[in-house]
TrEMBL record:
Pfam families: Acid_phosphat_B. It comes from the Bacteria. Keywords: Glycoprotein, Signal. This is Acid phosphatase, class B.
Amino acid sequence: MKGTMRSITRTLVAITWLACFAFPSYSEPGNLSVLKSEIKQYHDSGSYQKELERVLYQAQDYILKQAEINQKQKNPKKLAIVLDIDETSISNYNSIIHRDFGADLNQIHKDILEANAPVIAPTLALYKAAMEHNVAIFFVTGRHLSELKATRLNLLRAGFKNWAGLYLRPDTYRDSSIVPFKTKARESITKQGYTIVASIGDQQSDLKGGYMQKGFKLPNPFYHLP
């Protein structure tokens, strides 16, 4: 009898253990209206700006140190950095709020064609410092190639006057993740003889795929791109 009870107990424990994996329990997610209010407060309180500045200052310090080390070498390398565009170099916050955090691709496309998104000032400061230290600038963005003209215009209006390359994904790109495109873009840059000392972006997908010495993740509670 005792042996039977122990066997039953072991069976019940095993079933319970398997159920934890087969049927995961989910707690109720945060209320959408509350989350929107919290994101607005995070931005408007200055906390978002402070976090942007903290990461970008770290990135700038790292880039300039790498440039100084490189300049002392007998055969210095061609150094470069990769910058994302949206929520990294320019801000779409006003449009995001106007759309109440929601939009379809047509609405986003129309906003991009306006070419009036304001600059993210600490990124522009980093850009200028890198240029002064002979570090080439490449922009790699998830925007589509059909938005090239508007994207170039917006960058110029924001103060980014020169760059070594601007990569936009093809309009025919169908992968659910932007990682393969951005990885291939960085690979292309390295094949041009550059060493990418830093990749800076607001999505984890900006930091995946290699072809960089170091990645810097900026805050973005507004949306996610895999």
